[in-house]
Amino acid sequence: AYERRFPTCPLIPMFVASDTVNEYKSEDEAIHVIERRCKLDIDAPRLLKKIAGVDYVYFVQKNSLNRRERTLHIEAYNETFSNRVIINEHCCYTVHPDNEDWTCFEQSASLDIKSFFGFESTVEKIAMKQYTSNIKKGKEIIEYYLKQMEEEGITFVPRWTPPVACKLESSTSHSRRPVSPAINIPDSATKEGLNNKEILNTSSSPSEPTAGTPDDKLDADYIKRYLGDLTPMQESCLIRLRQWLQETHKGKIPKDEHILRFLRARDFNIDKAREILCQSLTWRKQHQVDYILDTWNPPQVLQDYYAGGWHHHDKDGRPLYVLRLGQMDTKGLVRALGEEALLRYVLSINEEGLRRCEENTKVFGRPISSWTCLVDLEGLNMRHLWRPGVKALLRIIEVVEANYPETLGRLLILRAPRVFPVLWTLVSPFIDDNTRKKFLIYAGNDYQGPGGLLDYIDKEIIPDFLGGECMCEVPEGGLVPKSLYRTAEELENEDIKLWTETIYQSASVFKGAPHEVLIQIVDASSVITWDFDVCKGDIVFNIFHSKRAPQPPKKDSLGAHSITSPGGNNVQLIDKVWQLGRDYSMVESPLICKEGESVQGSHVTRWPGFYILQWKFHSMPACATTNLPRVDDVLASLQVSSHKCKVMYYTEVIGSEDFRGSMTSLESSHSGFSQLSAATTSSSQSHSSSMISR
Length: 694
Hints:
Helix content is 30%, strand content 24%. By secondary structure, the protein is α+β, with helices and mostly antiparallel strands. It folds into four domains: 2-152, Alpha-D-Glucose-1,6-Bisphosphate, Chain A, domain 4, CATH 3.30.530; 220-287, CATH 1.10.8.20; 290-483, CATH 3.40.525.10; 502-550 and 569-619 and 643-662, GOLD domain (Jelly Rolls). Strands 1-2-3-4-5-6 form a six-stranded antiparallel sheet, with helices on one face. A five-stranded mixed sheet has the order 7-8-9-10-11, covered by helices on one side. α7 (232-248) packs across α8, α8 crosses α9 (270-286) and α13 (339-364) packs parallel to α14 (387-403). The chain starts with 14 loop residues before the first strand and ends with a strand. Residues 500-653 form the GOLD domain.
């Protein structure tokens, strides 16, 4: 019935045509593999098609029919725009393990949009719309062709049997079919698990054990009470993986619930699940994660300013974690604690989540293996897109995804502001597809309407800051005082590995000796981004462009070019003989930055060449009516000993191919958030449309 939709299908209007590219049939006719190139007329705006320069898109589809194992695997990927958009789809028809008269159907797909002429969001919406409509019509189409076959008198297709000449050879070679060499499991156990379909086909053999033998079964009450619904095949996979761990793994064997999470994360592919589980067990041992709740106490800064905490449970009995991300000073936490301390705190939250799941399983009398996370984004803005902070977030996501799979039951994202799609674009590629399906996002006050928060959380426990009546003891967050910030030197003395050691650099700025950083740009329309703190004194920040490279600093000339001090280095690149307007030009208006300020910004380069970021000592202006300095100026100058300033800075260049169409992710906005916003200063708009803000 499935094959009847080729070479084209009137029930799928966008499926215009298809051509066979490759075809293979085995001698015994058990295997039939056919590869087609399909032509699709995507329902997209005419303008988008014109910009993309195509009227049709092409996909390659490979269908693998295995009559021996009674499976049909369908793989598809896009050929058009494959360097910009990656689409992978996999479908599978199999025989149900419990009833061979039933057919199982599974389908999964992934979409990764790297860039698409600035229309990434539009393409994502179109792809999701097309995919959703195809899923809805899939059953309707297969039933249409089944009915068509019945009208033609075809109501039964005989099961494949090997040719007579091959039967003897097949029966003797069947027991020698290869199994995965990576798992040292007896061959009989292998046949009981993932190869359940083979057992159904050869169940008449008395010598071959089946999944129903008493030694291979978990207690039904135990499964229902602690593990949930498992098919015989899934149960067999769990038993085999646990048995393998007991035979080979030296150390603590995880509980069945934890093993099951890894199996589910890899769709019960035992090889893949075993690999990530072993990596995770090694990681837990190396970092003593099993003891983190008993041996590690979070620093006071986290307890005061990390706006997250546990809050009762949802309607399904899952523990509920509330995170007020919009009220959290992510930059301040990273600067005060470093990435490692934040990561350790997130790990302790996950360990606490596992413990609460076990408790709720006992309380509610049914298996609860995951928790619900409620994230309030009220107050989220461009400050939260501070790039080192986002990089720290991505690393935390990576560690959690690898070691706590299938622990997030549902993620409720509330009051998502306009800047949220930018953050989502940055982090979503690092989140597992199965996890992404559990995200529910509400903009504004949509969470208060139908399909909102009340569908998942009892009214009595909705937090007060969301309009509920329940007092929530989650810290309110707020700006971390700069007095709690630690320098790279301080963190190094504590022997803690932090982002600030590798990302931030410190520099000293003297009167008459600015600090300068050279950035070479090959492609126009690249983006230079920066983030710096003025730790001491007042400075003037400039950006210059030159077509020729400045001479490298002379390390033997302390007074003129390069100064190294305990508080940071000082490098000067602009030669004294260079003239502004002739040898180099200013591409941004100067920005005066006061002591204690944080500045983030970006500059879209107009030309290739050499760009120089400069931090210069800011001299106090004299009084306009007299040549004598004012009292305030004298007092201010005395505060800067030896006319020295200090900055800690981080810069990065984003290539034009990554930047195109993503300006909103680069322009800085208020560095504070909600009622905590600090004053913002923007430079005059240059040709490069850059913006600087404090």
